């Protein structure tokens, strides 16, 4: 299967109509659309380590969630991190696909994977624009017990938690940056809202708003989407070899 053929098939499942207007996702780098794809590296971010790993291990394509190129480039030189990675990739004949907000919104994507991990039922979109999800735990549980589940299921070493004084039953969620959807969580009448990043002031407001807020880490609330990408690839072409690489460069000390 060629780069062009694979991108076309993935776009049928992840149409660009689902992307936010401010987003830049899709085909990021490609020197030859007719090049064959035999080996694909999955990673949340196209870090320099991921690029070097792809080169050293002879991958044909990197498929990421976060866009390699997000803002317009004024120049492509080795003086900038993005430019340096683009040059390496083109020289090595490695293409890059990035599926960002379309993977957040699509059925089965980032937020559905997160809802499944947290064992929610009766799952619905959190907002009218299709972002986020809201659903129910089978039985209400104390906030501390739910946080233990979150850490275990996401592999998150630490959470920032603001107690709104509720048992956890109806849960709203949004992987990644989610402070702009706190209002949607309140409108949904969720007692608990979890996202990757919420910010200090948002967490401080939790008791006054009457909602439990959990900040699970941007990486940890989105990383499981790589399993979704792997499943898509296996359905499209089972002969393609797929490897997943962690791109998390942050440590807790």
Describe the structure.
This protein is α/β, with parallel strands linked by helices. It has two domains: 122 residues, NIF3 (NGG1p interacting factor 3)-like (Udp-n-acetylmuramoylalanyl-d-glutamate--2,6- Diaminopimelate Ligase, Chain: A, domain 1, 3-Layer(aba) Sandwich), CATH 3.40.1390.30; 109 residues, NIF3 (NGG1p interacting factor 3)-like (Udp-n-acetylmuramoylalanyl-d-glutamate--2,6- Diaminopimelate Ligase, Chain: A, domain 1, 3-Layer(aba) Sandwich), CATH 3.40.1390. The protein has eleven helices and eleven strands. The strands form two sheets. The protein has a six-stranded mixed beta sheet with strand order 5-6-8-9-10-7. The chain has a five-stranded mixed beta sheet with strand order 1-4-3-2-11, with helices on both faces. Helix 2 runs parallel beside helix 3. It is elongated. The termini are far apart.
- CATH architecture assignment name of the largest domain: 3-Layer(aba) Sandwich
- Cα(first) to Cα(last) distance is 44 Å
Mean pLDDT: 95
The number of helical elements comes to: 11
Fourth-level CATH superfamily of the largest domain: NIF3 (NGG1p interacting factor 3)-like
What's the topology here?
Blueprint: H1 3-13, E1 26-29, E2 39-43, H2 48-56, E3 61-64, H3 81-92, E4 95-98, H4 101-105, H5 110-117, E5 121-125, E6 133-141, H6 143-154, E7 160-162, E8 168-177, H7 182-187, E9 192-197, H8 200-204, H9 206-209, E10 212-215, H10 218-222, H11 225-236, E11 241-244
Features:
253 residues; alpha/beta; Udp-n-acetylmuramoylalanyl-d-glutamate--2,6- Diaminopimelate Ligase, Chain: A, domain 1
